[in-house]
Amino acid sequence: MKRILVVAAHPDDEVLGCGGTIAKLINEGYQVYTLILGEGITSRDEKRNAKKRGREIKELRKQVYTANEIMGVKKVFIYDFPDNRFDTVPFLDIVKIIEKLKNKLKPNIVFTHHEKDLAIDHQIVYRAVITAARPLKEETVKEIYSFEIPSSTEWCYPLRFSPDVFFDISKSIGIKLKAIKKYKTELREFPHPRSLGGIKLNAEYWGMRTGLKYAEAFQAARIIR
Amino acid sequence: MKRILVVAAHPDDEVLGCGGTIAKLINEGYQVYTLILGEGITSRDEKRNAKKRGREIKELRKQVYTANEIMGVKKVFIYDFPDNRFDTVPFLDIVKIIEKLKNKLKPNIVFTHHEKDLAIDHQIVYRAVITAARPLKEETVKEIYSFEIPSSTEWCYPLRFSPDVFFDISKSIGIKLKAIKKYKTELREFPHPRSLGGIKLNAEYWGMRTGLKYAEAFQAARIIR
Amino acid sequence: MKRILVVAAHPDDEVLGCGGTIAKLINEGYQVYTLILGEGITSRDEKRNAKKRGREIKELRKQVYTANEIMGVKKVFIYDFPDNRFDTVPFLDIVKIIEKLKNKLKPNIVFTHHEKDLAIDHQIVYRAVITAARPLKEETVKEIYSFEIPSSTEWCYPLRFSPDVFFDISKSIGIKLKAIKKYKTELREFPHPRSLGGIKLNAEYWGMRTGLKYAEAFQAARIIR
Amino acid sequence: MKRILVVAAHPDDEVLGCGGTIAKLINEGYQVYTLILGEGITSRDEKRNAKKRGREIKELRKQVYTANEIMGVKKVFIYDFPDNRFDTVPFLDIVKIIEKLKNKLKPNIVFTHHEKDLAIDHQIVYRAVITAARPLKEETVKEIYSFEIPSSTEWCYPLRFSPDVFFDISKSIGIKLKAIKKYKTELREFPHPRSLGGIKLNAEYWGMRTGLKYAEAFQAARIIR
Amino acid sequence: MKRILVVAAHPDDEVLGCGGTIAKLINEGYQVYTLILGEGITSRDEKRNAKKRGREIKELRKQVYTANEIMGVKKVFIYDFPDNRFDTVPFLDIVKIIEKLKNKLKPNIVFTHHEKDLAIDHQIVYRAVITAARPLKEETVKEIYSFEIPSSTEWCYPLRFSPDVFFDISKSIGIKLKAIKKYKTELREFPHPRSLGGIKLNAEYWGMRTGLKYAEAFQAARIIR
Amino acid sequence: MKRILVVAAHPDDEVLGCGGTIAKLINEGYQVYTLILGEGITSRDEKRNAKKRGREIKELRKQVYTANEIMGVKKVFIYDFPDNRFDTVPFLDIVKIIEKLKNKLKPNIVFTHHEKDLAIDHQIVYRAVITAARPLKEETVKEIYSFEIPSSTEWCYPLRFSPDVFFDISKSIGIKLKAIKKYKTELREFPHPRSLGGIKLNAEYWGMRTGLKYAEAFQAARIIR
Predict the structure, then answer these.
(1) C-alpha span between D88 and D23 (Å, rounded)
(2) For E28, which DSSP code?
(3) Do chains B and F touch (3 or more CB pairs under 8 A)?
(4) pLDDT by residue (tens digit) across E1-60?
(5) Which is nearest to F56 in space by CA: F74, F43, F37?
(6) N or C: which end of chain F has fewer CB within 10 A?
(7) How many CB atoms lie within 10 A of CB A216?
(8) What is the number of other CB atoms lying within 10 angstroms of the CB of residue A162?
(9) Contact, F47 vs F70, CB < 8 A?
(10) Which contiguous run of DSSP H or E holds residue F78?
């Protein structure tokens, strides 16, 4: 198994959720592709105005490319679904985009959001992924893992992210941090969970719980071997 | 108790979900009505175009009538909510249609989808049914059962369909298979779960687990006796 | 289906849990048998001393017989497992007793405790029942329902009794109350849930939620039809 | 901690859900504000027509003010999201309104709906609240409690409202009943759960389960002390 | 990762639960060890009498060795905890035995029972395994999977086995069936789930749901990579 | 409300679980009592031998007293239930001891273990607490909180500790660490979760998730106000 697709709702989710893991797997020989569905900017306004925010959207896209380059991602695909407003889009449209890319790339592993995340876009993306990658005979996707997004998944009460898969990122935490630093506009100050310190603390925490130095935590949706 | 309403999202769900059970209950003297809410076709296109798909929709409706006739259903009611796009319709509109038909037919038992199904239309229909049939004093519906739809319910991760009600369809499996055969355009090849072989295997499986030859599995939402 | 077995941990559980329902079903022609597994007294002492409590045990048994007679129960079977100490008995011993009686009486319906009840004896009895009545081909038990025991089930945090089956006891609430009155030593003062007022309030509450005057609530473990 | 915000989907939810509790807390010195997001009327029509229902909407608003005055609420904020059609509104719009008011009032406690309620508007409001009040360093909201709405929460199958927080309303039940009486158009006849008798019965029921005369039940989403 | 330990409560559980998978993995180069904790016989008697059943116990052990040999298991370790009476043994004793063997063999993967199985011995073994193999730094066990035991796991109501890991046993189903045939005294007639036909049907069922010909289903407890 | 009882299975659990919180609450004027039920030593041997381990038990008790003194606990009550073998003791015996102490001290708040913890003693203690402190009219206990024990709760798969109550221990973390240091024999090296570094990391982690510097996390069992 050699091809991985990361399906993220917003720029930076791919690094926050599984940046260390994909850096590690790329190092082991995997080819990784990133799909980012939303533009990640316009939810700042009460009425969406993609034009008005055009420069910021462009700027953020640049960050996407640099961050993914650092991790060694082969190619990034970006769509512009409205930030934090995926519920205003027909669910099927999102499914179809994932389906098409999936059919083209034929990945074996998919990393994506968790079903029970605070962010509505994250919830929708998870559902879209399992809808697009049904375990039919001809389906290439054999593993689907849900990641957490610090400052989102853990703020969804009641908590339902219950990880059972842990990747050792002791050797790739550096790359993860380097990649996330590229998302200047998205990072916050510690102790915000979406800060450099917060991301490191989170990795230490999961590491401590699994006998590792640094780890990323996932919940398996489906593994076929 | 003598009147049953099956509330399905798409043509063929009524057979897949509870075809054997209603055939059996009709044989025992129940009157069964089927409500199908969606047209079941247009999700094939990226942009819905009901007109373009007019012939197929018509063709599928014919299959609905024949299949339901085989099972002995008294009357079929078909609406044309957009296939796999029920989330684009106000939820209340779906509730109101179910409510109206329910008030007219005064069924005692309702069979419908399961809350946690892969298909978004299925989820919505379940929620609409329990919203439309609240257990008020004057409510005639005394039993609500959720069925599974092979190739949908079982692909919803994490799995949450946890059946506790089983109907013996050893004598009506033949009718179920005969009815589903009418849905030529919907059937797939074994080992697809929505194939003749798959449907039979599923019934054997639940039968084995409950000491029966063939069974259909349901999860009780509410039973009032 | 005509034969019912109630499997209770302690004297009075059979009335508290399903007294109104069995009175109603007896009236509809069912034959009901009660199995009470524990003696219901000795947990008052720090060290169990069944002899010392002999008179009370005898007295309580008399109450059992009178209460069950009022409800129209055909026969009562009483064992003397140590009150609130079922965990000190091999689980298999309890299973075997239920199994033997079940094989003799060949009931079609079983009413018993709920899996998640505060009382350890209640938990054990539920597990013993589902172990003894596995849905094999030759198994006569086709329906298993879990009841709640006021002042026990509702004090088990987190709450997990989630009823989905409700029996209308509007006509048999009187018999239930008459039967429970026989358990003089077990009743408490209102607002204790195990008081006459509390039992009535509970039945009104479930009634209100299901459009009935008085109801008893159950969670279906398994129904085969 | 001195400021409370009640976030309700419809007029009367604030009284049904936590009327006794806020009356009690106001008496203890808290300042309470009520936010009602929907107009509560137009779902009666198949097509929403807020103009046609203008008079009723106005009338209901008057009831809101009187009812909240009785409880001692400091100020009521009312929006006119479409009744039972919150799913047709971008989720983010609802979040933003809550967020803005929250930032202005800086409440310490929020009472709102439960995640798993039959009414789609209730579900959405809960999600919007936890999205708007994320536990960042600067967040003033330290406690979030979910209430039940009789004739809605308990009709959501499977039942998932599992209260763990109970407020003693023995002294404020009178105010609750007085306030709800103002909602003439919303009240039903007993045994409907949304009747005077039903509301009292419900409070007695939770009281009995917690050693109190009358109680309101809540599920804690988050408490920070 | 090259060493696997199967921890089973009774003879035949190792084949029923994961026979196809271990045959497949042995073929891929893994070394597999089997630990069977109970003698599997004495629960037939009301009072345990291991002596009286000595011959049968010996006979069953022979079946264990032959069956495991067929699958290619390297070594089998058998203990004689009392069949279906593991609850009468201090839980810690079971933990310690697993711990010791685990420390000796240093397996990387463990297959064992599911937490929520009808059989009390199965439940206890699962808990003992996760207690013995805590993810400390020095722990060699990196993957723990729970299997189902036909005629046990599926009869535990409410159902909670929710598999997320599936192994393709299309090529090893033959070995599984050959191995289970050695357990002459344990096999039943179809449609009993613990019959040759039942085992095959079960594998076909999971296969159908995952796009495979035959599959075994597992629930991941923990995976560290 | 002024009196708190901490009910712990083993020496050090009271500090690990809620040491920062009780130090904080003592500072706010609460009186805190600690009940430790087990001796915490003998599980090291295959056969329990309390005599042989007499010296160590005594030594550990000294640590208990010093640690609790540091936190400002008013009085410690220690029992000698067999370490990690609480399942070999009648459950009722444990309940009765808690009940008696509770009736004597009349605490308003109880901190204890979580229902789903890896350690069997922890599970049993939780169940014993909720059995001993049923919310009857005369019950003084109005709040029950479950804590986590690092290196135990988080290793119970599937994870079910889902905290909803967080105490700010930013000012009392120092006392917690000072107290835990007294348990020399129980502490491990970082990154073990039961190390000084691990305990601090855990408090930082929950702090980050709740906008605090350091926090302890709890799950509310029951709060009555």
Answers:
(1) 34
(2) T
(3) no
(4) 599 999 999 999 999 999 999 999 999 999 999 999 999 999 999 999 999 999 999 999
(5) F43
(6) N
(7) 30
(8) 17
(9) no
(10) strand F75-81
Q: Which residues of B18-54 are buried (b: 16+ CB within 10 A; e: fewer)?
A: bbbbbbbbbeeebbbbbbbbbbbbbbeeeebeeeebe
Q: Give the number of other Cβ atoms within 10 Å of residue F106's Cβ.
A: 11
* Touching partners of F (3+ C-beta pairs < 8 Å): A, C, D, E
Q: What is the token pair recorded at F29?
A: 């004027």
- Helix and strand numbers (H, E) in chain A are 6, 7
Q: How far apart are CA D172 and CA B217, in angstroms?
A: 48
pLDDT band at D215 (very low <50, low <70, confident <90, very high): very high
Q: Which residues of D touch chain C, with CB atoms under 8 Å apart?
A: 154-155, 157-160, 162-164, 190-193, 198, 201-202, 204-205, 207-209, 211-213
* Cβ-based contacts of F165 with chain D (< 8 Å): 220, 222-225
Question: What is the crossing angle of helices D196-210 and D173-181, to 10°?
Answer: 160
Cα distance from D179 to chain F (closest Cα, Å)?
A: 22
Average pLDDT score over residue span A187-192: 93
Listed in sequence order, the residues at least 6 apart from D217 whose beta carbon sits closer than 8 Å to its beta carbon are D147, D148, D161, D163, D165, D166, D206
Q: Please give the distance of CA C48 from its chain centroid, rounded to a whole number.
A: 23
pTM higher than 0.95 for the full model?
A: yes
Let me know: does A15 contact A67? Beta carbons within 8 Å: yes
- Cα–Cα nearest to A2, from A147, A114, A107: A107
| Pick from C154, C204, C212: CB nearest D209 | C154
- For residue F147, the SS3 value is strand
**Residues of chain F with confidence (pLDDT) below 70:** 1
> Which chain D residues contact residue C190 at CB under 8 A?
208
Cβ pairs A/E, distance under 8 A: 61
Average pLDDT over residues B58-76: 98
**Structure tokens, D140:** 């003033």
What ipTM did this prediction achieve? 0.96
- C4 forms beta bridges with C32, C109
Cβ contact (<8 Å) for A134 and B157? no
Neighbours of chain C (3+ CB pairs under 8 A): B, D, E, F
What are D51-82's pLDDT values in tens digits?
999 999 999 999 999 999 999 999 999 999 99
Query: In the structure encoding, which two tokens stand for residue A37, read together?
Result: 């569905």
Distance from chain centroid for Cα F123: 12
Q: Which residues of D touch A120 (CB under 8 A)?
A: 91-92, 127, 131
* Nearest partner of C159 among C220, C118, C212, C206, judged by Cα: C118
Reported as a single tens digit per residue, the pLDDT across C160-213 is 999 999 999 999 999 999 999 999 999 999 999 999 999 999 999 999 999 999
CA F121 to chain CA mean position, Å? 12
CA distances from D210 to C150, C161, D28, E167, E195 (A): 12, 16, 21, 49, 51
* R_g (Cα) of chain D, nearest Å: 16
Residues on chain D touching A156 (C-beta within 8 angstroms):
130
B209 touches B167 (CB < 8 A): no
Amino acid (1-letter code) at residue B138: E
Phi and psi dihedrals of A164, rounded to 5? Answer: -130, 0
